Amino acid sequence: MATATDRTGMDRWEKENAKAPLRETPPTTVSSVPIEALYTPESLNGFDYETDLGYPGQYPYTRGVHASMYRSRLWTMRQFAGFGTPADTNERFKFLLEKGQTGLSTAFDLPTLMGLDSDDPRAYGEVGRLGVAVSTLDDLHRLYAGIDLSQVSVSMTINATAIIIMAFFLANAEDEGVDWTKLRGTIQNDTLKEFHAQNEFVFPPEPSVRLVVDVIEFCTKHVPQWNTVSISGYHIREAGSTAAQELAFTLADGMHYVEQGIARGLDVDDFAPRLSFFFNAHNDVFEELAKYRAARAIWADVMRNKYGARNENSWKLRFHAQTAGCSLQDKQPQVNLIRVAYQAMAAVLGGCQSLHTNSMDETLALPSEHAATLALRTQQVLAYETGVTNTVDPVGGSYFVEALTKQMEQEARVYFDRIDQLGGMISALERGFFRREIADAAFVYQREMDAKHKLIVGVNAFQETDEKPIETLVIDDHVEKEQIASLRQIRTKRDPRAVEKSLAEIRRVAGTSDNLMPALIAAARAHCSVGEMMNTLADVFGRYDGAAKW
Amino acid sequence: MTARINTMSNKLAPIRVVLAKVGLDGHDRGIKVVARALRDAGMEVIYAGLWQTPEAVVRTVAEEDAGWLGLSILSGAHMTLVPKVMALLRDAKLDHVGLLVGGIIPETDIPRLQEMGVARVFGPGTALPEIVDFLRQRHEAARA
Q1: Is A363 close to B124, i.e. CB distance below 8 A?
Q2: How large a percentage of chain A has pLDDT more than 70?
Q3: Do A550 and B32 touch (CB under 8 A)?
Q4: What is the largest CA-CA distance in chain A?
Q5: Does domain A49-386+407-450 match CATH 3.20.20.240?
Q6: Which pLDDT does position A467 carry in this prediction?
Q7: Is the dihedral of CA A311, A316, A317, A318 positive or negative?
Q8: A534 touches chain B (CB under 8 A)
Q9: Which of A88, A255, A211, A118 is nearest to A531 (CA)?
């Protein structure tokens, strides 16, 4: 038998391995990180299970945030949906709940994300197209009509205008007689990554972060079960970053929010347990699951040791995962089902708390009902048929997985130092650091695909000459007209003096350091629109146009 | 890049391309990658940036005296935005400017865009050399 000091087996393996030629595509991750031929105890360099890894549900949570993970409770299957009018999306929500989905996730259209009303000239052609159009409290009411908000958890993907939509949500809950303390859900409310990647920002970075912290502060006091920020790496990855950049930039954003919350005078343990994360699930199974494990270990460490959190819930990084939209192809779209299934498995092996699986037709259009059903079924097969849920952290202790987890952690820490050297988050952002890093990585990736160092089935390998198109969802033009008509009706019906008074109050509070939420809730009740409130805030905060830098 | 191509592009007037994101969609990964590839291929690239209105884009094309305009649209608003840009190019007597569209464009919309006068639609998965070669070929054909 070989022992740690007896390297006969190892020496023989090294010789044999060196003789065997490599395949043409280099063994690197999706992020172009080279991978060793074999991982052994030596790769872990004095690894001690008790101190370096530990147990699920215990610091530093590398093996998961819960002791029994999916044996007790499966992840939440949360499919993102939204298109057309609030009534159209409401119908899709009810369809998904009926098919066995366990939480709702709301996509808003681009005008709403950018703070423009449906009747704004710049919204022309985009109303209800990529998500649902919400301009007023009335729209939000129709969006969730007939869904018991004290029972179903709701996620809302919105950032620059998050605080306004949250104000609508809270006003609506009150109207429906649902106590704020009963509300469960998540608002994305992560504007920093908009500047890095997603490009739906309106105000300059500092007032943008102030609004994020206003939501954190208000919900910490009044909506205790609400996840106040979903700190998102998803979009950073979609914009072309590597896995390590996604990890590092997301956690750096999280740390900035924590610092701002503390600066606001909040006790870290009062708000940190309600911060959640959102990561991408890309093609490379091991790189992805190592990323989630590293994320938990780093977050636990910084929350405990850098920010002095004492509540264990503040140390736990809980995350939602979504399979990688950017990995989907328009060639042979059914093949996307297979990509999504492997990506979803990586997310589950990495211990996600909730998951969205993309539909196979997303490079062509918004998901059809058929494609959306298959995407959900993919999760159900994973949960009930594959057996990956049977034991906690089934990949833990693999030499490869543990080595890659450590490596990921180190790469992220190198980035934290670079961000510090650039003067911290806002200064690095304003210098274009994040955008540049991400664009460079995107370019490298595309070059490798063009050179066929990375093969993508149906795209640069295994192409079909005769492809049959699949059926896709068509959003018809009635949406824009209906939305504009209903908005005009609200504008004529409401009390113009109440509107003016509430907008004036928003303007006043924006100029102070007080929390804006109460003024926004009052404005929602006076039927002020998203656009009116955003324009009022822009008068005080200014608008940010850092977008043309590349 | 090979020396042969370098000498060729020296003799020709350089290809000038304005690239822009029109509408509200912020997906700029593709357009930035394309911008860099065209620039590396010796073309003059003006990236107008995000959230451009059709009017602003056409103004940039005129000011920059560009021969090509590349629009990136991943929001599904292409059937509204492209005809508008087309009409504005005609009004500005810029009919000679070639229009390229990139992004998420359903198969059934591609022939409709081409009928409107779009020179080419590049979808996801397009290799960068394909775009470079297309522009070079058209450029040489126009000169011949």
Answers
A1: yes
A2: 98
A3: yes
A4: 87
A5: yes
A6: 79
A7: negative
A8: no
A9: A118
Contacts of A331 in chain B (CB under 8 A): 125
**Would you give the end-to-end CA distance of chain A in angstroms?**
58
Whether A476 has a pLDDT exceeding 60, the answer reads yes
In tens, the pLDDT along B71-94 reads 999 988 899 999 999 999 999 999
Q: Nearest chain A Cα to B47, which residue? A: A548
Q: Report how far residue A519's alpha carbon sits from residue A501's, in angstroms, rounded to the nearest whole number.
A: 10
CB atoms within 10 A of CB A157: 24
Q: Could you tell me the pLDDT band of residue A82, with boundaries at 50, 70 and 90? A: confident
Q: Under 8 Å CB-to-CB from B7, ≥6 apart: which residues?
A: none
User: What would the DSSP string read from start to end of A291-337?
Assistant: HHHHHHHHHHHIIIIIS---SHHHH---EEEEE-GGG--SSSTTHHH
- List all residues 6 or more positions away from A230 whose beta carbon is below 8 Å from its beta carbon: A155, A186, A187, A188, A189, A190, A276, A277, A278, A320
Cβ–Cβ below 8 Å for B29 and A365 = no
Range A155-178 average pLDDT? 97
Query: Rounded mean pLDDT of A258-274?
Result: 98
**What global pTM score does this model have?**
0.94
A291 — pLDDT class (breaks 50, 70, 90): very high
Higher pLDDT, A519 or B76: A519
Q: Using CA atoms in the order A425, A426, A431, A436, what is the torsion angle rounded to 10 degrees?
A: 50
- Whole-number average pLDDT of chain A: 94
Nearest CA to B127 out of A451, A439, A24, A327 is that of A451
> How many angstroms from the chain centroid is the CA of residue A416?
20
pLDDT for position A3: 54
Taking a C-beta distance cutoff of 8 angstroms, is the pair A359, A394 a contact?
A: no
Whether A110 sits inside 8 A of B24 (CB atoms) is yes
For B58, the enclosing helix (H) or strand (E) is: helix B54-64
Give the tokens for residue A388.
Answer: 């990956």
- pLDDT at residue A247 greater than cutoff 90: yes
Q: Which helix (H) or strand (E) covers residue B51, if one does? A: none
Return the structure tokens found at A379. Answer: 């999760």
* H/E element, A156: strand A154-157
| Residue with the larger pLDDT of the pair A181 and A547 | A181
The second-level CATH assignment, the architecture, of B14-143 is 3-Layer(aba) Sandwich (3.40)
Instruction: Give the orientation angle of helix A243-263 with respect to helix A205-222, to 10 degrees.
Output: 70
Rg (CA), chain A: 24
Q: What burial letters (b/e) apply to A327-366, b meaning 16+ CB within 10 Å?
A: bbbbbbbebbbebbbbbbbbbbbbbbbbbbbbbbbbbbbb
Interface of A with B in 324-343 (CB under 8 A): 326, 328-331
Report pLDDT for A25: 80
- Domain ranges for chain A, please list them: 49-386+407-450
Helix (H/G/I), strand (E/B), else coil: A472? coil
pLDDT band at A548 (very low <50, low <70, confident <90, very high): low
Q: Mutate one of B19, B21, B29 to test the A interface: name it (highest A CB count within 10 A).
A: B29
Nearest Cβ partner of B128 from A199, A331, A450? Answer: A450
Q: CA-nearest residue of chain A to B123?
A: A330
Q: Alpha helices, DSSP H only, in A196-315? A: 205-222, 234-238, 243-263, 268-271, 285-301, 312-315
Half-sphere exposure of A100 (CA within 13 A, CB side): 11
Q: What are the helix and strand counts (H, E) for chain B? A: 6, 5
**Which of B23, B108, B128 minimises the CB distance to A446?**
B128
Least confident piece of the model among A91-100, A194-203, A289-298, A420-429: A91-100
Q: At residue A160, does pLDDT exceed 60?
A: yes
